[in-house]
Amino acid sequence: MEVVDWLLEADPATRWQALRDLTDAPNDVVAAERARVATEGWGARLLALRDPDGQWAGGACFPAVPPPEPGQPWTSTLPTLDLLRMFGLDPRSDLARETVTLIAENCRWEHDGQRYFDGEVEPCINGRTVAAGVYFGVDVADIVERLLGEPLADGGWNCSTEYGSIRSSYHTTINVLDGLLAYEQATGDADVRAVRQRGEEYLLERNLFRRKSTGEVAVGAFLQFSFPTRWFYDVLRTLDYFRAAGDLPDERMAEAVQLVRDKRQPDGTWLLENTHPGDVHFELEDGDGLPSRWNTLRALRVLRWADGS
Asked: Does residue 137 sit in helix, strand or coil?
């Protein structure tokens, strides 16, 4: 319980999830803790940084004024909504409803001025938009319909399809799967389930991180656990997706699950790895190479699921 106690000393965004996923706390206790996300800690800080028109940093995917720091900035509306969803902000709260209404009215994609909840052209962006839209109660059926028509022959998705790519991308595929899973769980849509499960096969056929052609590790960074994950793929993120899908672990995940076990530190925590560079609202962790509450929370609940708890 020492590591769980450490998680319970954290921000409400991680505390309520630790209560739910690791201690099986009563629903009313979890709900009371979750409600604090809007008024305390990281969630409240993000909401306080919102522009009057409902956006963050004046843009959808990118800030209106690019920051001087290297890397992709993470302060615009898309990555901020991602965080609030992962933090568990109550979508029924007055501030959440107001924010979503303002985004729908005022936020436009940099690609071609599309309305935010209509999506744009890149499936990785559209998958994340679907996940947020479902979470905050917005109709995103048109984006889902587009995603259902975009899988490649191997079952996954790639944001570079419009430039001629015929092979799927791990990164794009996991972003689309997150969105489709959220939509399916909200609607029970069987067509979405069929396409989503075919997308899962793209990952499972590769044991979640290998090249199908050679068996080699596809990208070394897939074996490093970051948070926030942004649009990037990694093994822990993907195992947490499969856990959320609610299916029994597939034997083709075994190597990835063992990787999670092997990364556990002697003190029972997991480290933060491979933080994606770019301007942020504020730091959520102490830095790469140090114990990470987010990675520890997600790793513990993944192993709990993998072990049949």
From this structure: coil
